[in-house]
Amino acid sequence: MSGWPQLLAGLIALACCQALSAADFIAGNGFEAGCDADRDGDRLPDCVETADGRFLSPLATGTRPELADSDRDGIDDGDEVHGSLGGLDLPALGANPNRRNLYLELDWVDDEADCGPHSHRPSLAVVSQLEQYFATLPIANPDGSQGIDLRIDIGQGGLLQGGNQVPDFDGILLGGLSPGGEYWTLKAQHFDARRAGYFRYGILAHRYGTVNNQSSGEAETPGDDLIVSLQCLGSEAFVRNTVLHELGHNLGLRHGGAQDCNDKPNYNSVMNYRFHFAGTDHNCELPGDGGFGYSGGLRPALNEAALDEAAGICGLAAGRAQDWNGDGDISAPVSANINPAESQQIPRCGAVLSWLPDHNDIQALDLGALSAGSRSEARRSQCPGVAERAW
Question: Looking at the domain that runs over 101-252+367-389, which CATH code has it been given?
Fold first, then answer.
């Protein structure tokens, strides 16, 4: 009996649009006489949007007729079923209107700055690790699955031929993401215009902004543009974590989750400078132990004015105490500034001794935040200095 709902949905769609055939499609929209209602304007007639979360064919899409983007991934259902009007073949790229899709093109620079000839191209291993991470995220989709289908194009071949080396003689993207920066010239030359609005784009360079900038990257927050700039520290883990960090900014995350308050010991996220290079924590003890990912928001908030040292960063049940004030005793309550690397405590955290919450990054990811709007108004997050953070 488990197949009856899908069969019924298909029969209803067929009955509603019984005259529909390949010849009836107009510009790939699927409209024809008697089946032209499209409440949500997604180029899918209501009669094929069966609202059961199961894509069977363009005649039974499983999508919701009142939502243009049923899976809330920032891509309209019609584009995921038929491809974009501009000619981007999203179905061939694995688009599914009932499961979230995320697309990222990464170009790179080869240069000789500081440490001899080297390439900033990310490895296939980095691409695989990032794609697998997103695929297993605990985010529910309309089709009943969990996760996000991330596709990263570094020019692997086949349908992924966008990523490529871009010419920059010194490896420095002068101006960064500021209006008029070199980044925008290179993007205009090397990013297929058909991908605009569907793919995020980034360049892995040696540095950005200025010739002596030590920052590891910059990204629109939120938006669709990012830079990774690891200079000579291009290990697989550093590249993976930094791409994930900058992509997190594009998806709306800040250095403290929903706030700019940085270095929180209980915010176990690659967005946090404390865990960006050291890696996230798995055993409730500081520092991090080499993991990577966004926070699930599972750790208790910490009140710097009244800390229970026996509770550590994960709570009493974890049994991992932390001597926050460094006096050699485990006691409560104690007061201590436990995110001292945050240089702007009052504007970003509210006070020197403040309330430090964890944050559920995963559920907060905003795939629909694709465009930052006016570039002159886009918020840009500049990320940790490599020399000071790459321990």
Answer: 3.40.390
